[in-house]
Predict the 3D structure of the following.
Amino acid sequence: MGTLSDYLDWRGDLRFFEVGLCEVDSLILSMISYLDFGGIVPTAEEGGSITFLETMRKYLKLCNGKPSTLGRFVPPETVAVAVKAAKTRRFAGIRLSHYICETDDEEPKQFAALTFRITRDKYFVTYRGTDDTLTGWKEDFNMSFMLPVPAQLSAAEYFARVSEDINGKFYLGGHSKGGNLAVYAAVKAPERAKEHILGVFSNDGPGFDKNFISGRDYAEMKDRIRTIVPQSSVVGMLLEHEENYEVIKSNATGLLQHHGHTWEVMGGSFLHLDTVTEDSRLIDEKLKAWLDEMTPEEREQFVDTVFETLSSTNAKTLTELSSEKVKLVKAWSSLEPKTRNVILKCISILIKHNAITIVKK
């Protein structure tokens, strides 16, 4: 079965005005947002735009011709797909603008977004998923007890600004947390801007709390939201989804299915399945039951304790943290027994249902 790379070989010669946006395009555009285009793609304040081909040329030049890694949890295939896409007629000439990247350790907030002009009057607004920073991961965990988190507010403000600056029709999308931000921005968009939203793509993005999805604004946008999850999804099944999610096939196992480069492609779409696996369904039930055992205040205290302990290692990213084995062991030892037990319970759920595989050598 095909991959994103095969899709680019197959459809790369047809521009977006010749064949419109499909679900595979939405994932590719969402993955591109993980790249750091600071100083390359103009911000809203700077104005103007740049082609994707020129963007990647400048990006590679800054990397001395060798694409940089994006951290421990963003696979290198993400850069490879972007490099290949930039060489195709389909993606080379699309124009990028309104780049923004913000990280605030105090709030905490990790937010990035950019806008693609894919045809004369159609645009794709994409939000970055969780990056390598501990700040980004803490904000993700905060979603279990807080709505909105700072990145969600920024996502809504960003689209409101873009829709004011640009007269056109919009798709919104993202991968992982980026998918969640895309949905939030669409639901909270100004009424005038909502009329110009063609669709929203959440690629294995987590959901929301019950109050959010039961609201009128969400109900009005629901039919334009496409939530796509792999068959053993963990991240995309978190929290609540009112919309019908679509299940697609991945060639990986467990949590590795979250990486979009593992999603199987057939023609201009993913290979769709009838339902998620039994393990995915059970993980969803167990994790939600695990969260329900804690009050929102207890969840907040748990998250603060864990990330304050991790921050005591002076690591700013998961990559730095994983390279400091001694400091990590000390951090784990300094956690209260109750907190360690909560973490171990979560890990045991994932291992039991094959989300995490431990290989013994």
